[in-house]
Amino acid sequence: MFNMGSKIKVCKICKVFLIRGENWFYSNLLCRKHLSEYQNEHQRVLYSKYRLNPEYMFKKRESRERYSKTDKGRKAHNRAISKHEKKYPKRAAARSKLKYWVKTGKLTRGACKICGTDKSIEAHHTDYSKSLEVEWYCSLHHKVIENRILL
């Protein structure tokens, strides 16, 4: 027999020896196979229980809004924006230039290219090097164009 100590454990399900860093993950002592099965089932249960529940979604939104109004929340948001601008400098420059032109009145927002509404209009850049050549979409259709949601 050898001393199992803290470096070697046993999977709770299949009883295979686990070595920290190789096939032992987190504190739940499951091998890679059983951990992925556990996570998939856990995600499915959480998704059905919380994500599709309108009451939960409303509470989560309220919680995010409260956090965003605190100093800690504003600092976290500013850090995220700064990190994103460093990662995508062309996007940041194009957005900044477009924002300036719209603010000074040199460029006006158009109607949504798909539905024609003039409410909650957003600019869509097809090429960030041409920062003033944009297509105007409402927020819903812009998300569809960016493949963030499917209709």
3D structure, described in words:
The chain has 5 helices and 4 strands. It is elongated. Strand 1 and strand 2 (17-19) form a beta hairpin. The chain has 151 residues and is mainly alpha-helical. The chain starts with 7 loop residues before the first strand and ends in a 6-residue tail after the last helix. The protein has helices at residues 32-51, 54-68, 71-87, 89-104, 139-145; strands at 8-10, 17-19, 121-125, 134-138. It has a two-stranded antiparallel ribbon with strand order 1-2. A two-stranded antiparallel sheet has the order 3-4. The longest helix has 20 residues, at 32-51. The protein folds into 3 domains: 8-51, no CATH class; 54-87; 90-151, no CATH class.
Overall outline: elongated
Rg, rounded, reads: 24 Å
* Topology pattern, helix = H, strand = E: EEHHHHEEH
Measured as a percent range, the helix fraction is: 40-55%
Number of domains: 3
State the helix count: 5
Which percent band covers the strand fraction? 5-15%
| Average pLDDT score | 82
Q: What is the rounded distance between the termini?
A: 61 Å
Give the strand tally.
Answer: 4
Structural class: mainly alpha
Q: Major β-sheet, in short?
A: 2 strands, antiparallel
Low-confidence stretches: none
Strand order in the largest sheet:
1-2
Please summarize what this structure is:
The chain is built from five helices and four strands.
Task: Please outline the helices and strands.
Layout: E1 8-10, E2 17-19, H1 32-51, H2 54-68, H3 71-87, H4 89-104, E3 121-125, E4 134-138, H5 139-145
Antiparallel strand pairs: 1-2, 3-4
